[in-house]
Amino acid sequence: MLPWINQRKSRAHTYLDIIMNKMNVSRRQFIKSSSALAAGAMVAPYVITSHAAPVSELKIRIGLVGCGGRGIGATWDALNAAKEHGIKDIKVVAVGDVFEERAKNFANTDDPRIKGATPCFGFDNYKQVIDNPEVNYVILATPPGFRAQHFAYAVEKGKDIFTEKPVCVDSNTARVFLKAAEESVKKGLKVVGGTQRRHQQGYVETIDQIKQGVIGKIIDLRCYWNQGAIWNNPWDINKSDMENQLRNWYHYLWLCGDHIVEQHVHNVDVCNWIKGEHPVRAYGMGGREALKGPGQIWDHFAVEYEYADGTRMYSQCRQIDNTDSNVSEYVVGTNGSSNPSGNITFNTGKVWRAKQGRNPYVQEHMDLMTAIATNNKKVNEAKTVAESCITAIMGRESAYSGRKVTWEDIIEGDQNLVPDNLVDMNSPVKPWATPCPNTYELF
Predict the structure, then answer these.
(1) Do 152 and 16 share a structural domain?
(2) Can you tell me whether residue 389 is helix, strand or coil?
């Protein structure tokens, strides 16, 4: 991961000036040799959000749904974003979790911006939080299996939303989320997804240049999230099946979607962002070789995705100890290549590097707050984050089944992993097994 360093609020040069300096050519020569670059030469560079007065005057009342590590982290990120913006009138007024102790513990955090928040718990905690009349900034951070339902409810109630990824785990939740995403646009709601690379200055500057054609026509894309084994909580015979799965949510498909969806979606999203579209089909493989303990997820995937124009995206993700780590993306073009997190290497051997801004986990909340203050209805990432999650699901289902899977197979399929009638810890869970290609039923 790149370190977060202090960054000036704007770049000193346009990307065209930087590229010309690196290539040792004049403006006249450069424009003459590249009409594609000339057409986009004066596009404004990425600028760190300024502390505009309207933003500092916001009154933010946070409602958090999901008091696990990511939910608590996202709440602190929002509070830090408000501090960066100079927002003083901010408070967490309601926090919810399916587990009572988690909600109460966070509500009692010894910080005046959090302490005293109303704790909400049970499977309907999200309604209690979102229905709070003070809440105007909803953070959704439960396990992904609940996300579509919670998002749809927040949209129905007309709230601006920060939603963590993933936003769906199967065909049914994908359709629920996409329908709510359309409604959020109609209502003019501001929505930011947890794909924070879209708010990371190095990525924003680099991908802006790639989209302007500086590396020519894209030949292929690659993305990776390879790391060691993920946590896995032991089964407790004194707890119900429902509670055991909730406390070990990463290892069950209806809650997590598998790590290709829950984690690798970040890298897949970068490739979709570069292409400006989603793939149309996937062909993958993988398995569960080293992973021990309860659960049904796999520990490695490799998927070849195909976009509509025939461009391929090669995807790898792995969670196995004592293996090489690699969390990155890579794009190859006719005129050069790029690690889109912040550098471009031209075929001439010249290298350009982007500036690195503040922590993107904070920046994404700053951007959402700016959109709310300025009523910028264009800041709605619901559709793009959904498309990247569906892309990951497409790869998962291809690997599980051993067959090619299309975009339509997912969004038109009848897969419904989430149990019905979730009431309490004694609610039944659906039968489950570790997917195996020679027996797995594709919808």
Answers:
(1) no
(2) helix
Same domain, 151 and 91: yes
In a domain, 145, yes or no: yes
Is residue 247 packed enough to be buried (19+ CB in 10 Å), middle (13-18) or exposed (0-12)?
Answer: middle
Residues 65/126, Cβ–Cβ less than 8 Å: yes
Q: How far is CA 18 from the centre of its chain?
A: 30
Which residue in the block uniquely carries the two structure tokens 């810890």?
Answer: 425
- Dihedral of alpha carbons 358, 362, 366, 371, sign: positive
**For residues 284 and 300, is the Cβ–Cβ distance under 8 A?**
no
Strands of 300-364, DSSP E: 300-306, 312-319, 326-333, 336-339, 343-346, 351-353
Taking only the tens place, the pLDDT of each residue in 296-310 is 999 999 999 999 999
Do 296 and 302 form a contact (C-beta atoms < 8 A)? no
Which neighbouring-strand residues pair with 339? 343
Residue 130 is assigned to a structural domain of this protein: yes
DSSP, residue by residue, 197-220: GGG-HHHHHHHHHHHTTTT-SEEE
Block residue for tokens 């600028």 = 47
Phi, psi (rounded to 5 degrees) for 55: -70, -45
- Cβ pair 310, 218 in contact under 8 A: no
**CATH number of the domain residue 145 falls in:** 3.40.50.720
Residue 179 lies in a domain: yes
Domain count, the chain: 2
pLDDT tens digits, 61-89: 999 999 999 999 999 999 999 999 999 99
CA distance 314 to 124: 40
Is 355 inside any structural domain?
Answer: no
Give the pLDDT confidence of 240-278 residue by residue, as tens digits: 999 999 999 999 999 999 999 999 999 999 999 999 999
pLDDT band at 53 (very low <50, low <70, confident <90, very high): low
C-beta separation of 314 from 224 below 8 A: no
